[in-house]
């Protein structure tokens, strides 16, 4: 499972930081940051979800009001949103 985070879409509501500790607040930028992610292209970050964190990662995606977080299974099928 992996998470794709579109930081350009993020509006800084920070719901995700309450669901998965890999999302942290960047108050200076007014956006969340996905810790341990790699930038795939400008503003688009990707990170594997470790075993045991699947539920938290999915919840972070579900609570994002602007759908900046997408969760995929190992085969690349979109799970959230």
From TrEMBL:
Top-rank lineage group of the source organism: Archaea
Record bears the keyword Electron transport: yes
- For whether the record's keyword set contains Iron, the answer is yes
Query: Per UniProt, which keywords does this protein have?
Result: Electron transport, Iron, Iron-sulfur, Metal-binding, Transport
Q: Name one Pfam family in it.
A: Fer4_15
User: What residue ranges carry the coiled-coil annotation?
Assistant: none
Molecular function terms in GO for this entry?
iron-sulfur cluster binding; metal ion binding
The record's annotation in Gene3D superfamilies points to: 3.30.70.20
Q: What is this protein called?
A: Ferredoxin
The species this protein belongs to is Natrinema soli
């Amino acid at each position: 499972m992996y998470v794709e985070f579109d930081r350009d879409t993020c509006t800084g509501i920070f719901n995700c930081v309450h669901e998965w500790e890999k999302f942290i607040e960047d108050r200076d930028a007014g956006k969340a940051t996905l810790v341990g992610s790699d930038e795939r292209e400008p503003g688009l970050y990707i990170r594997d979800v470790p075993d045991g964190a699947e539920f938290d990662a999915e919840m972070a995606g579900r609570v994002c009001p602007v759908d900046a977080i997408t969760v995929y299974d190992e085969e690349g099928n979109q799970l959230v949103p």
